[in-house]
Fold these 2 entries.
Entry 1:
Amino acid sequence: MDSLGTWPRPVPADDRDFDVQVMRRLRTAPGDGGAPDRPSLGERLGTSLLLVVPVLTALAVVLLWQQWSRSGSVLFLALVAVLLVATALWWTTRLRRAFTTAQGRLGARLANVVDHGVGVVRELALEPVGEDAAATGDPDEATAGGGGRVRARLELSVTPVQGDRFSTVVEALYDADAALLLEVGSHGPVRFLRDDPEGTTVIDTRLSEEQVAQVYRGAALN
């Protein structure tokens, strides 16, 4: 497990099914320490102000503009400018703070929902798909390197970053040339839901090289 050599990445898949499962788990996922992680009253009020303050500012600007149109005093224009600048600075700062808080909370909760590991191929089956399958009817055509797409059925032994090793089956779509590089012993990063690893494992194509290295190190230390 000390090698960072990985299997070829499959054709980018539509992970909406996996993402839907993640969102369902996140609704009930605990925060740090196992306690439910809910925004405090102050955080909810602060988020509400992101909508309220611009509305109040718009009303104030309208009133000040009307006063300026009646009196022609430059003071009202100065107040409009100050109000707009102050509101813009406050709103930008508050929005950044809200996003930072949300990202931290989401990251903490995802750690209790989604996990990563290294999957090693124990058994491998390939078959052409679509027009390739209809034209040839022969799974061996997948190894001919003639282009097209190949569906791979991979039986994996997965070593998670945390937890016990498990076995699962994953299906993925590959370009035929990439499928040539698949073999028993190939390995690469996978992700799964912690409460159902055998039934929810997918090949991870979203990770950067640094993240892949972290997954391998974590699995090797587990």
Note: The helical segments are 16-26, 41-71, 74-110, 131-136, 176-179, 197-200, 209-221.
Entry 2:
Amino acid sequence: MKTTLKKTMAALSAAAVVAASAAVMAVPTSAAGVSLTMGSKTLTLAELKAANYQVTLPIGVTDSINSVGFGVTLGEGLTYVDLEASVKKATCLAATNDAGNFVFAPFAYATVPLKAVSGQIAAITVEVSKDAKAGDTFTLSIDGKDSDGVETSYKNGETGDSGVPGGGAGTITIAEDPTEPTTEATTAAPTATPVAATTTTAKVATATKKPAKSTSSPKTGDALPVAGVAVAVAVIGGVALVAKKRK
């Protein structure tokens, strides 16, 4: 009788566990109280090379939690490098699959008294393919699943709320390097009036211009012009001739 009772209780317990698990599994992602978020970043090819092709993105939650398990799937062209908790005294130990394109990490945070955290909880660093070029976009997705696709759960220790977290996605975008602005139009010398040529022409004109004839009477001591001398001679000769006839 005792054996039968134990078997019955065990069966009921197992059924209860299965029912509870099914109830949690049945929570749709869109109806989850907490969702996981993945940051995005845009950088130029020069910036990517300067960072040795490594990019770090934030991982967060949309509401307060104390624990959550999440998986990050890396898109083509990305390789896992590191993942660390962003909250002091929190643990977040990451493990990757053999291909290196999936990372699973359980996050846990406990304090006395118990306090929940929200916002950024971790940061993941990935390496972008060295074949990356301007215009390329690489995607990372995050959700509450492990490498086998089994759903995990979050829990808020203060309120007791729990459930399957919703998922999200982030991107790494490679932008064009800025081009150097052309300076030809701004540095070209403006067209100016050839001042030197104008000045030279003015000087030549001044040099070749004949002085105007003076119409004023000559001053005492000035030399008479040739025509004036001839007239004077003629007058003097006439006076002499008249004087001679009178004698």
Note: The chain has five helices and 13 strands.
